[in-house]
Every structure is written in C-alpha cells, then in structure tokens.
Design goal:
single chain; mainly alpha; 3 helices; flat
C-alpha cells in the first residue's frame, strides 16, 4: 500500500476531514490532498 493511501485511511479512521488533519499537523489542506493523491513537487 502506498503512503498516500495510508495517510487517507488514518485520517478517515480518525474521523478527520482534510482541513482538520491539516490544522492538527500545521500544513495546508492542499498539502494533505497532494500527499493522499501522490502528487510530488520537487
């Protein structure tokens, strides 16, 4: 399983929206979305 799926499963398991998860770890909602969708900006 790729990391994006693990992040999404953990977030959903905790009952968090992307916005809520982002706030808790102090990143943007877009960052959460990018991680979950495997988008990388190098």
């Amino acid at each position: 399983m790729e990391i994006g799926n693990k992040i999404k499963e953990a977030r959903n398991g905790a009952g968090l929206t992307q916005d809520q998860a982002a706030e808790k770890i102090m990143v943007s909602r877009q960052t959460i979305s990018n991680w979950e969708n495997g988008v990388s900006h190098s």
